[in-house]
């Protein structure tokens, strides 16, 4: 008799489901009881919905119709619910509450319709025996509805991915250090959700073509969700707000829009937005460049590890938008790369200077404005083509006896 038979699989799934629901419940309690912002409340919806999603498979495993009905009532239609919540959770990290809550409620209209048309009657059928004929008809087309739901979810996953990319680019225009709170965990969460939705769609297509498997194939999706939230979900509890200038977000949003194909509006769509430095003469632009370079050489503000675009603009006595335009349009770089160019140059000068052999690479990096070993090594190699240790070895050979 094989050890991994149907009975053992059921016991394994039972343990995973109970452990997963318990863990998600603890995360929800932590999020709701802690003094957190609105974005954390949005994140808690992911965990709450997943608890009922897992409860459905637990009820299926134990053939409990009342539990299944409760799970369907609060956990069905996840794609219509979590898609908008994913997008607006990310928006809540960069926008105030009043710009998030009303649009979110509008985007949830398909979920309201699904809940009234499917979740409620199916749940009543499972718990009280009502709407049995309706429930039977729903089962006939459940896989087709699931495919529509998954397609809807994938659309929001794509929009969420684009928004994260826009935030990443805007952060590089604003901060000289972007490794902390860089939303990388959300990128992994988006990729994980994409894979799960694609696999779930494959299962639905499979069940439309082939006979159903005796055990619920969806339990694999449930296990995958538990693993995804365990690995990445908890990081959201420590995600802080991201402060970004509004004009940068608007520029990123407009750059992501596809050009219009209608020839009647082609001329209008090709009009370039008015920039503040457009009224400056070439001589004035060169004067700004020289003033910026002199400021960086004399005062070395880049040594401040938390230097931001607005801080440097204040030192330069111009607006942050003008400084951003100067870097992007006239120096063809962004704030992050621009400042790190000076930091790498400072590190190289210190490594070449005699008497600095007693200092470690990391201490020199921190003195020059870098905040972590990882970012220092990555940026230095990107700018010079070699690692900091390799550069130091070459300098030792050059200056050695």
From TrEMBL:
Domain of life: Bacteria
Transmembrane segments annotated in the record for this chain: 12-30, 42-61, 67-90, 111-132, 144-164, 185-209, 215-234
Record-linked SMART domains: HTH_ARAC
Protein's UniProt keywords contain Membrane: yes
Keyword field: DNA-binding, Membrane, Transcription, Transcription regulation, Transmembrane, Transmembrane helix
GO terms of molecular function: DNA-binding transcription factor activity; sequence-specific DNA binding
Sequence ranges assigned to domain HTH araC/xylS-type in this UniProt record: 293-394
Stored Pfam families: HTH_18
InterPro entries for this protein: Homeodomain-like_sf, HTH_AraC, HTH_AraC-typ_CS, Tscrpt_reg_AraC-type_HTH
Xref: PANTHER family: ARAC-FAMILY TRANSCRIPTIONAL REGULATOR
Protein name: AraC family transcriptional regulator
């Amino acid at each position: 008799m094989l050890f991994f038979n149907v009975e053992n699989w059921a016991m394994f799934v039972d343990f995973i489901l109970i452990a997963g629901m318990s863990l998600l419940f603890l995360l929800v309690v932590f999020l709701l009881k802690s003094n957190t912002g609105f974005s954390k409340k949005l994140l808690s919806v992911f965990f709450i919905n997943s608890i009922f999603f897992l409860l459905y498979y637990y009820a299926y495993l134990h053939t409990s119709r009342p539990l299944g009905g409760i799970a369907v009532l609060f956990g069905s239609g996840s794609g219509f619910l979590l898609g908008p919540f994913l997008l607006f959770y990310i928006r809540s990290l960069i926008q105030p509450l009043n710009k998030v809550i009303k649009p979110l409620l509008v985007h949830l209209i398909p979920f309201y319709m699904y809940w009234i048309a499917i979740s409620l009657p199916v749940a009543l059928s499972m718990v009280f025996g009502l709407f049995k004929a309706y429930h039977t008809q729903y089962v006939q087309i459940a896989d087709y509805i699931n495919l529509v739901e998954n397609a809807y979810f994938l659309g929001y996953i794509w929009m969420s991915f684009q928004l994260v990319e826009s935030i990443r680019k805007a952060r590089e225009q604003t901060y000289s250090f972007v490794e902390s709170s860089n939303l990388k965990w959300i990128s992994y969460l988006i990729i994980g959700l994409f894979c799960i939705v694609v696999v779930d769609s494959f299962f639905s297509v499979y069940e439309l073509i082939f006979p159903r498997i005796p055990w619920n194939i969806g339990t694999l999706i449930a296990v995958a969700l538990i693993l995804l939230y365990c690995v990445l979900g908890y990081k959201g509890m420590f995600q802080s707000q991201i402060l970004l200038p509004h004009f940068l977000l608007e520029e990123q949003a407009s750059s992501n829009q596809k050009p219009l194909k209608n020839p009647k509006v082609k001329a209008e769509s090709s009009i370039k937005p008015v920039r503040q430095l457009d009224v400056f003469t070439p001589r004035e632009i060169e004067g700004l460049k020289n003033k910026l370079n002199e400021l960086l050489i004399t005062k070395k503000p880049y040594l401040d590890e938390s230097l931001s675009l607005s801080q440097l603009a204040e030192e330069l006595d111009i607006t942050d938008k003008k400084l951003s335009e100067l870097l992007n349009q006239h120096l063809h770089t962004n704030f992050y790369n621009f400042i790190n160019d000076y930091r790498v140059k400072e590190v190289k000068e210190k490594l070449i200077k005699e008497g600095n052999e007693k200092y470690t690479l990391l201490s020199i990096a921190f003195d020059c404005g870098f905040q972590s070993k990882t970012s220092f090594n990555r940026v230095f190699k990107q700018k010079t083509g070699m690692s900091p240790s390799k550069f130091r070895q070459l300098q030792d050979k050059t200056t050695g006896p």
